[in-house]
Amino acid sequence: MTDSPSPSSGGPGPQRPAPDALTAASFLLLAVLAGLLLWPLISGGPAPSAFLIAGLLVVRLGIQFLRARRDERLRRPASWALDILLIALIFYSASNQPPA
Fold this sequence. Notes:
The chain is built from 3 helices and no strands. The protein is flat, with a radius of gyration of 20 Å. It has one domain. By secondary structure, it is an all-alpha fold.
């Protein structure tokens, strides 16, 4: 008899590897962005700077490029183009706002 649990015994399945550092950093940036964007809705406070949001998105896009250099499956040029367009629109709208 073996000590390892069989799949039918309800034991843990095969172990998935932990995410690498770049994946963890990408998820952390998404969590920070979500927190920055949700906090004003919850607390009623002022919205974060559009330049801060766009800057964090640029950093995340850079991380995505680095991840794609390591893994061919992560190359998604259409997604990157949409991210760049979103970042450009955020910078455009932020630069055209009147000073507060």
